Amino acid sequence: MNYDFSQLNDKEFEALASDLLSALLNQRIERFKPGKDKGVDGRYFSDSRKEIIIQCKHYIKSGYSALISKLKKDEVDKVKRLKIEKYLFATSLPLSRENKNEIKEIFSPYIDNESDIFGNEDLNDLLSKNPQIEEKYFKLWLASTTVFNRLINNAIKGRSEAEITRILSKSYRYVPTANHYVALDILKNNNVVIISGEPGIGKTSLAENLCSYYAAKNFEFFSIEESLSEAENVVIYGKKQVFYFDDFLGSNYFEAIENKKDSHIVKFIDRVQRDKSKIFILTSRTNILNLGIQHSSVLANSKIQKNELVLTIEKIGELDKAKILYSHIWFSKLNEEFINEIYKDRRYKAIISHKNFNPRLVDFITDIDRVNVAPQDYWGYINEMLANPKEIWANSFKVQSNSYVRSLVALTVFNGQAISEEDLEISFYRFSEFEGVTNPSHTEKDFSSTAQMAIKSFLNRARLDNKVSYSLFNPSIADYVINEYKNNMKKLTFLFQSLGTVESLERLLSLSKNKIVSIESYDKILQAIFIDIFTNAKSYDYQICICFLFGGDESKKESILGKIKEILAKPHPISEFYKFFTLILEQRNNIPNISAKTISELISECSMDMDDISALAELLYIYKIDDENIFEDISEELEENILGRLDDIINEIKLDSYIFCYGPDDVFIDESAVREKIASDIENLLSDYGINKLEKIQLDIDLIVQNVDVEEMLNDHNNANDDWDGFSYPKEWDASFEQGNQIDDLFERT
């Protein structure tokens, strides 16, 4: 691989060059803390006890002419003041024969041979001969073309490929803090890590770079956005795969628990821990994770509570903070006038020591595209951002975007999760009408141009299986927007009326439960939506959910019954079967009869999950519907669901209890007992869902169990419990960097 070393800042480049020369010379090279180096970045002593020094210059930003000027102006005099035997020089810039000769002449007689000058080509040659050093500087090789192509190939097509590309595009600014190596240790021991922390603390950045590290090591990468079923559909036992679930409980633990996400998470964690070829990386806000554990018995009783799975990154060491700030400044597009404002009177120390310091704030204050002030006002801007971190999006949202972009962002926020492009576009124009905009076709007002302005500043646009969806660029945008709009009753009503999605209703419910929106406001918004759904054509799923929310409201009974009868009279494919069937059961005293034909037409074109089947079984039982075709359809759906869960059922079996070993080559598994256990677990599952009360729902459990390959289970068990030859990972910057208070030294301009 050929690197230009642009992924490293100057301090990292110095460390790399010293490591490479140490390997070449087979010498321990002393390194010194960052700061005024007096022309010395490293040294060793010759056999005659004379000092040989090493000087490294990155200069990737400035170029060869600036380098020569610097050497003539400052470095020569430094060298002359040193009583040395020899001078070695390294730079990240490519050097021609003439270039090396010019540098040799500048430092003569301390450099007497051009081979003591190391340019880009020389350092790349040394890297190719020292893969252990290349491994150490993972930021370097992550950005290489070869590794980039490997990463893309290892990312499952669609959203995951786009996600890994986005992660790599900003990895150069990443600083591997102490938490990075703690997380790697947790993953090495447990295969799973949950990174928790407050918004902006850097948990997503840490998680993303862990993912890219594993993906570069030939792990297939998969980004989970909404449901673990996405991951479950691609899991291959024994194949190296890394799964990433950012903000896995969302912004609200109620939503996670009500949607059964908690139990799915726990089962998938257990599944990953049984297969050493898998890595599962999750993030969550600390308060949401703690509340989730407090209110979810599934989470509370799981291994999630154990500290070995959870890495809390609330506190970042002072030196790590300094490295984060330094890296952002180095790779920023800020000009010298702005940078000088940070360096003046060592103001960087005020940033690092501020109580509200976090990496996201650093990202904001060093992003020239977001800094909309003159250089002389820059320090005031930084202080304002530090003092009011909750307003981090205020300038971008209120000043740097127009009302149409704000509308698009707000609609995405209040939808609660990713929204399809089709739904967002419809909602956008509907909201524009509510707001009184009569000409949304103007260049600045149409959906496409508005979406382009919002993408990458507030929103992500992703394509998966020819479907386009939009999600928030950063979860903290939701915090800001919700806080900004929560007391604006008129706008909130317009937003939820415009959205017309099931997800938006679930978002509204969660805002009420968390007391972000008052009960009074919640009721008024629901009233407006309720009236609206009877005057506008919307999806049955949405109508079912709103009726479901008003199920116990006597004043709405006639309207709800009318909507139920409308759906029953004109069967249409729906996906919210569970809520619809439950709604009918709640209103059964007012719905005396449902025909078998209606039920058959309802379920004919859609698939059902276990909750749907359970609710339908209850409905058939209550209404005493006896139809062979319906039971045949349900039986087929049930078999598909059980087969889909079979891996989980198998993986939950403690196989050690059924294995008998009489010698190294004589291992026996009690197949009959294993099959009985699988059959028993399936029966228990049916009982848990109340499906076994209807005898006509047929499931050939014996046939399912007989098709299980127990020998393969044994092989998988043995493979999973073999010691996995994991890979080594890079250590922190050289230990010499960690001694003493080095913040001033780190920021010293050399």
Q: How would a textbook summarize the main sheet?
A: 5 strands, mixed
Radius of gyration: 31 Å
What order do the strands of the largest sheet run in, or round the barrel if closed?
1-2-3-4-5
Question: In total, how many beta strands?
Answer: 15
- Which structural category fits the helices and strands? alpha/beta
Mean pLDDT: 81
Which regions are unreliable across 5 or more consecutive residues at pLDDT < 50? 438-443, 723-740
- N- to C-terminal separation? 30 Å
**Helical content band:** 40-55%
| Net shape | globular
Q: Beta-strand level of the residues, as a percent range?
A: 5-15%
Number of helices: 38
